[in-house]
Amino acid sequence: MRIELVRGDITREGVDAIVNAANSSLLGGGGVDGAIHQAAGPKLLAECQELRRTTLPHGLPVGQAVATGAGELPCRWVIHTVGPNRHAGQTNPDLLRSCFTASLRVADQIGVKSLAFPAISAGVYGWAADQVAVAARAALDGATSQVNLVRFVLFNVQILKAFREAFADSAAAAPR
Ligand code: ADP
């Protein structure tokens, strides 16, 4: 698996799937979630509403992941995961690692070969970028997956730096 660390806007990524740092409601929010829904258009929200009506009436639990189509986005799928909210006392890093692991598992189930992640929980949910980066690294190191490209698309240079440090000695991480 090749790993890339780039600065950018995940809504522009033409990979097979992008991961959304959603909230449990799956009905949209701020930050990267808002940007993804805005760029994807109403089809994405309709699919999320359908999930709430059917398989996820109580929403998506923290640390789990689920896939939908991508509406008008340049990718094919959106994989929604819910990061732990530090401000709500969700301070267990296993939950954060689980977001990356569960997203990869869902990606495998739908045949995704290239996958882009944002820095889950590093915004409104209050985790430090280096903690997110370490959790991401641990998840990828422990994964067996058919995904052959994982690209972390980081919104600012501080977060990019934190990921570069966490992946510094990773043979899989390469500059784009
Ligand atoms: P959370 O609620 O999980 O903390 P946020 O959306 O608030 O989610 O933040 C997660 C990370 O996503 C933050 O580092 C934020 O800077 C980043 N982010 C926001 N918009 C985008 C975007 N369009 N592309 C990539 N990352 C983004």
Structure notes:
Helix 4 links the parallel strand 5 (114-117) and strand 6. This protein has five helices and seven strands, in the order E-E-H-H-E-E-H-E-H-E-H-E. The mean pLDDT is 96. Strands 3-4-2-5-6-1-7 form a seven-stranded mixed beta sheet, sandwiched between helices. The protein has one domain (2-175): Leucine Aminopeptidase, subunit E, domain 1 (3-Layer(aba) Sandwich). It has 176 residues and is an alpha/beta fold. The structure holds adenosine-5'-diphosphate (ADP). Adenosine-5'-diphosphate (ADP) is lined by residues 9-11, 21, 31-33, 35, 83, 118-125, 153, 155, 159.
Mean pLDDT: 96
Largest sheet: 7 strands, mixed
CATH topology: Leucine Aminopeptidase, subunit E, domain 1
- Count the helices. How many? 5
**Number of E-type strands:** 7
> Span between N and C termini?
14 Å
Helix content: 25-40%
Radius of gyration: 15 Å
The CATH H-level homologous superfamily: Leucine Aminopeptidase, subunit E, domain 1
Kindly estimate the percentage of residues that lie in beta strands according to DSSP.
Answer: 15-25%
Please mark out the parts with pLDDT under 50 across 5 or more consecutive residues, or reply none: none
Q: Which molecules other than protein and nucleic acid are bound? A: adenosine-5'-diphosphate
Order of helices and strands: EEHHEEHEHEHE
Write the layout of secondary structure elements.
Layout: E1 2-7, E2 17-22, H1 31-40, H2 42-53, E3 65-69, E4 77-82, H3 93-109, E5 114-117, H4 129-141, E6 149-154, H5 157-166, E7 173-174
Helix pairs in contact: 3-4, 4-5
This protein binds adenosine-5'-diphosphate.
